[in-house]
Amino acid sequence: MVRQLALVLVIGTSLFTAQLFARSYKVKYLENESGRTVLSQGWVAAEAPQSGWLENRYPQTVQEHSPVDSNMVVEIVAANRDTIQRELINRNVAPKAFDPLDFVEADEEVVTLVNSGPSENRIDLVFMGDGYTQAERDKFFEDARRLTDDMFKGETFKSYLPIFNVHAVFKPSNVSGIGAGSQPKDTAYGLYRQGNTLRAIFATNTSAARRSCAQAPDCDYPILMANDPYYGGLGGEFAITTSSPTSGTKVLRHELGHNFGKVGEEYDGGGYFGANTSSSVSSLKWKHWTEGTAAAEPAVARHIEWPWHHLSEGPYTASFRSNGAYRYFEVQYSASGVEADDTLDFRLDGERLPSPSPGHSDREFVEYFHDGGLSSGSHKITVEEKVHDGNNWLSDLTVYEYGEDYHFDAEHVGAYPLFSEWGSVAGYRPTHETCLMRNMKSVRFCPVCQENNWLQFFKNVSLIDGVDVSQVGGNYEVHLRVPPLGQFREEAVNPEERLDVRWFRNGQLVGSFEGQLVGEIPAIQAQDSWEVEVQFHTPEVRKDPSGLLKARKRIQLTN
Questions:
Q1: 237-251 pLDDT per residue, tens
Q2: Residue 525 three-state SS
Q3: Nearest-5° angle of CA 114, CA 115, CA 116?
């Protein structure tokens, strides 16, 4: 449990009603071939234009190596409800469908795992477990806590923690585990795998998941966690992962990356959209992160395939060609069931390559980098099992070649090719293998995704939690409440991060109050116009074109 930071203690003879952050109205609806239907609606702590609205669109599901889903989730935020209602009518969006279960008193158990502040002004993650029976109730909460600690105590989301709350909602399933072969079990939300491969997991009963999420104090990002020990998940409306101790966190941080940033994959093979993808070098969206003039990194994909091949059916063979013109080559693959180092016989042109065991049978990602290019001509990779225990799968296999001037530096931001499943250049991504949106073994976002996440968060969070006014003698004491960022963090994450606090009287900066969360205002100045402004500075954001990292509020001193 993360303790909530107590910034000030308000004392005085009288306490006026707390002045909270500005509110806007938000509606989320689903757009597909059947039409448009509202999923949820309510007030959020977002800054919206006084006229018009802000809109976000993202696929309902995001699946590895798959085209972008045509079913879209659309979020609209406006300063008032009437503006949105008129726009929903113009778009022929149907009201939320009536479901009698929405009016049945819920019996789900809700536990808050992280409380960093008021849900009205925080990003709320909600874990919901599928395939956990009543007898596995304690396991569900233990799994949810473990994944939460992995994400927020580790590097991945540590800097975001002050604006996050995390809740867990327990709804018991009638049977343990999830379905396979596209057949769900009798579980709370009907999660299932399409086959027996360790890849995507789908939900059958999304209505039940939305109802459960609504039991939490707030639900910005719902997470469905399968009671399953192996790799699997999905991004989109729901972030889906498993309780696997070896891959659950890997999958969840990647799927939340889709949902936080409203971005697509950085894997090769398709599914590209959002801030981490550009169609050409000349139109890079992240030029403010590059040094000098960016050029396309010299790389080529020689082989891209996702065989999902069960090696008990026989060896797997891949053939490809090289022109012999590149300086380095790399083979990347993922496999499951590799409990021992001698499980697989992995060969390139007859020469055995290392195929180390991760020490477990879950899906694992392996890279073999060679300081030297491939020779000109045809090449062949063969993979066969040496331990015949019935659980050895080869999931995907790619072969790349890199030029002499290729930037492998993890900190370098440039124009790295994204390849289609046929090997042609389909666009560009910001970094080599830094970002967890491309590399499942990475624990960090690239700078472009990290910045984009902050901007997405501050579309829904204000830097001012509220203002409390108390009367002390003949004067007024004003206490500003802010999220514990910058110098107000319990644990510093970056010395360059700070919150600038400025107070204004009749439009003029009050220098003696600068940087303070408490201001004492003489009674004779109570009729003046007072405002406070808070701005967040972090090296993780270089460009904020909409001014999302700034909040300003008028202070009402008298009733």
A1: 999 999 999 999 999
A2: helix
A3: 115
Output the pTM of the full model: 0.89
437-483: per-residue pLDDT in tens? 999 999 999 999 999 999 999 998 999 999 999 988 889 999 999 99
Which has the closest alpha carbon to 382: 283, 307, 325, 475? 307
Question: How do residues 49-108 score in pLDDT, each as one tens digit?
Answer: 777 888 888 888 887 777 788 888 998 888 888 898 999 999 999 887 766 666 556 679
Q: Rounded to an integer, what distance in angstroms lies between the CA atom of residue 181 and that of residue 394?
A: 18
- DSSP string covering 463-501: S--EEEEEEETTEEEEEEE--S-GGG-SS-S-TT-EEEE
In this structure, the number of other CB atoms found within 10 A of the CB of residue 350 comes to 7
For residue 404, with 0-12 CB atoms within 10 Å meaning exposed, 13-18 middle and 19 or more buried, which class applies? exposed
Residue 203 class from Cβ within 10 Å (0-12 exposed, 13-18 middle, 19+ buried)?
Answer: buried
- By C-alpha distance, which of 519, 499, 524 is closest to 509? 519
Please list the residues that pair with 365 across neighbouring strands. 334
d(CA 468, CA 6): 14
Question: Cα–Cα distances in Å, from 403 out to 111, 315, 366, 438, 486?
Answer: 52, 31, 21, 20, 42
How many whole angstroms separate alpha carbon 155 and alpha carbon 540? 14
Average pLDDT of the residues in 7-25: 51
Burial 266-302 (b: 16+ CB within 10 A, else e): bbbbbbbbbbbbbeebeebbbeebbeeebeebbbbbb
In 3D space, the residue among 430, 126, 396 whose CA is nearest the CA of residue 259 turns out to be 126
What would the two tokens of residue 112 be?
A: 């808050």
Burial of 335 (0-12, 13-18, 19+ CB in 10 A): buried
pLDDT bin (cut points 50, 70, 90) of residue 290 is: very high
Q: What value does the mean pLDDT of the chain take?
A: 91
Q: How far apart are CA 271 and CA 264, in angstroms?
A: 6
**Residue in the structure block whose two tokens are 């498993």:** 242
CA distance 312 to 283: 47
Give, in order, the Cα–Cα distances in Å from 438 to each of 194, 488, 515: 23, 33, 40
DSSP annotation of 68 reads P
The distance of Cα 434 from the centroid of its chain, to the nearest Å, equals 16
**What 8-state DSSP symbol labels residue 82?**
H
